[in-house]
Structures are given as structure tokens and as C-alpha cells.
User: What shape does this take?
Amino acid sequence: MEKILVAGATGTTGKKIVALLKDSEQFTPVAMVRKKEQQKEFESQQVATVLADLTEDVSHTTQGIDRVIFAAGSGGKDVVNVDQEGAKKLIDAAKKERVKKFVMLSSMGADHPEAATELKEYLQAKHNADQYLDISGLTFTIVRPGALTNNEGLGKIKLEHKLNERGEIPRWDVARTLVKSLDTDVAKNQAFEILTGETKIEKAVEDFQVLS
Assistant: This one.
């Protein structure tokens, strides 16, 4: 079983990622948490943890880790230090330990933040983190969903390099897409956008590799 570090494991999407990895036959989650009480909560569910804060040193977090999912965010409170610089620090830590793949949860609009009419600072931070990953030398996939909802996941999405439309997608379906993107040869060194659609997640992600 490969160990997957989940940054942002305590978030709404992060918890879903951890749950999916826990049920996986391939992967086992390692939840990155900031507080000891969060550590106890995960460990009571038999989920391994590592204590770290993205605004501080995270170089120890990738020791013994095979792959990384970055799903952390400051909720707009500290986008430079968490969403941007925190991501960069974790990319550096992943590079140092030669992790097999780094999957980044980004956002639709992060490819051209200058065009945004709202959330410009957030999208710029995500853009800078995505760019840093792109030139890091790590094998990666960048996933850019539309607006996240807490609706029940449908297991079906639409996926393209650029969708040229706005829309929503349940967090469960985003989590499933991120976990599927852990496979080394799936959407290798690619970024794509996702919304709710008609294609099963596994097929949409696998077929994207063929087209890209």
C-alpha cells in the first residue's frame, strides 16, 4: 500500500479524500494536520497523521511518502502564505523525497487570474503555486474544478484542458477525481478543468491522458 500525504485533510474536501483513500486497495492516507486534537481525531479512525503547519517548516512531512494530494486552503484568509507559499514548500519537500506524483487541487480561473472579476488574489496565489509545480520536475496533475458544492456526488463529470464555461461540482466528485489522478500515467504533467457532467470519473480522467 502506497502512503498518500493529504494536505488539507481537515477540510471539507480533504476529509472526503481521506475517506476514499482509506477504502482504497492501493493507497493508505496520511493526514497532515495542524493541531494535536485533529491528530487524535484521525488516529481514532486508524488514519496515520503528520503534524505540520503550511506557514511553517513542512520539510519532514514527506518522509516515507509515495504521493501527495494538496487540497489545503486558507479559505481566503491567508492566500499568499497558505495557498501559494505553503504549496511551494510542500512541493519542495516532495521533490526532496522524490515522491512519485503530486496532485494539486487548484481552481477554475487559476490559469488566467488577471481575467477574474472576483477572487483575483486567491486565483493569483493558485496560479503561482500551479506554475511552481509545473517547473518543479515532479510528476504532477493539476485539477481545476468549478464552484464546489456539498451535494451528493454523482460520479460523473465533464473534463477538458479548458471548458470555457462556468458551473458547479460536488466535493465528493472532486475528491474522486483527485484520487484517480494519483495514478502515475493518468493526466501526467497536465492540468484540466472539471464540472458535473455525463462521463464516469474514471473514464474521463483516463481518456484525457489519451487525448492530451
Summary: The first strand starts at residue 2 and ends at 7. The mean pLDDT is 95.
